[in-house]
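fold-stage: in
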Amino acid sequence: MADVETSLDDGVLVCRLNRPDAGNPLTGPLLRAYVEVLEEARTDDAVRVVVTTGSGRMFSVGGDLGDVSAPPPDASLSDLLHANYGDLEDLALADRRVDRLGPGRQTLAIRNFEKPTIAAVNGPAAGGGFAVAMLHDFRVASARARFTTAFIHLGLVAEMGLSQTLLRAVGPEAAMELFLTGRQVGADEARDLGLVGRVVEPESLLDTALELATRLAAQPPLAVQLVKRTLLRAWDTTFADQLDVEWPYQVAAFAGEEARQATAAFVAGRRRR
């Protein structure tokens, strides 16, 4: 059974985290498999939008700490963390011991994926599973969805960028409360807080996500990717720097055949009025 199952239809790639027996935990192999799917989709022009959901009743329980909670005598906790989540096989021992990214490598690959992404959150999303959902551009939640940072209950701190994505979504006070209590947030509260855009009945979840995905897939793909690239950069730049980002992207978009056809059709339609 593949850790991530995929299907492609009309430009929409559906990815299912596929360890339902264990709640779709973010083991190293599953996370690497998911990132490999995105890497292939990045250069595949047949893929215009990616929808991610979980198999079974959960989106993802987050990290699988089974092998880490009781390390063997000859293994350090740091080594086990790297073995499970760091994907540092190509680094020397010294580099592994002082590594500052860990699963941040996969996190960056998800965040920097330049085609639209939609998380169809079918059930509980905890810890790293919550973080993965927040890395998507859009989140549609089943009424059965639940969100929890969870880390504080394990004496741990946020990972996979959740300390930033959650803070930006809900503001500092709400983020602090969610991190320090680790309480569960139901689907309706998640919508009210701004964690998800829509809440639907479980049987409508995938259809709702696919409807949005189909609308996005119908847009000019170059413009869509440049818009997303522009917005991703906007988080980390000054206003003047953002102007410098926007203009070359606009020039590139205007040079494309899609823009020429669309603007010609728009002008022709306006003249007929």
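fold-stage: in (second)
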Amino acid sequence: MPAQPSTTTRAQVALMPGGRLHLNDGPIDLVIGAFGAASAVKAAYAAAARRFTTILDELCEELPLLRSEVTSSIPAPYGTTARLMDAAVRPYASKCFITRMAAVAGAVADEILAAMLAATDLDRAYVNNGGDIAVYLAAGQSFVIGMVDRPDHPGLFGKARISAGDGIGGIATSGWRGRSFSLGIADAVTVLGASAAAADAAATVIANAVDLPDHSNVTRVPACDVDPQSDLGARLVTRDVGALSDDEIAQALARGEAEAQRLLRANRIRAAALHLRGETRVLRHPALISAPC
């Protein structure tokens, strides 16, 4: 792998309006919010910036392994963020093709949040990595999260109130309209999970399940034709979804619901919202997700 430029000059760190922190390094773009005493917020942001400056290079060192299919015989990665990715996707490896890249955005968010919490005490905090979000809530604290049904044309359709004690440490969204490839046709699948990495992996799996295999109005191409570096290789990914009947929409969503129900029963997710062509299916622990706004 070619030598990477120095992280000390490449990473960008800036405060944003409202007291948020913005960190950028190549493909990683984070927006961070911390709440608590002013000194604690300052310490948390300093810790986040320190950890951030090396995280991309650490991932690049193991990139061929991280892009490989996870099997029982594949060696474990050694980086801390890579291990979070591995733990998030391992439960799915025996049932479907998956690589550790299915949890990379969530794992990066988790790792930065962990660095913040190790440095100081906070009331609340979040690390938003392009919509995959690690969250922390001290006792008595809560967040209200806006939910969108299409990441390419965001429109708020509802909200999720999460509180300390709900068992939620991460939120992630996947679908064919998002920034990553999908094998399915979901416009968006949003998952609440114990961590951002766990939610990221689960959202990928559920979004892949929302599908109509071999449908003539679904355009699919090999992932490597769009991105030669894709971890999906020659697997067909969705590039366009044409007209679908109401019955076909219901059928595709039912496939995704079945997968989400399985993950709920296995305690791998806390809630999921599946969206396709204006239709929504919500599966949840009671009181986690409100009615539409």
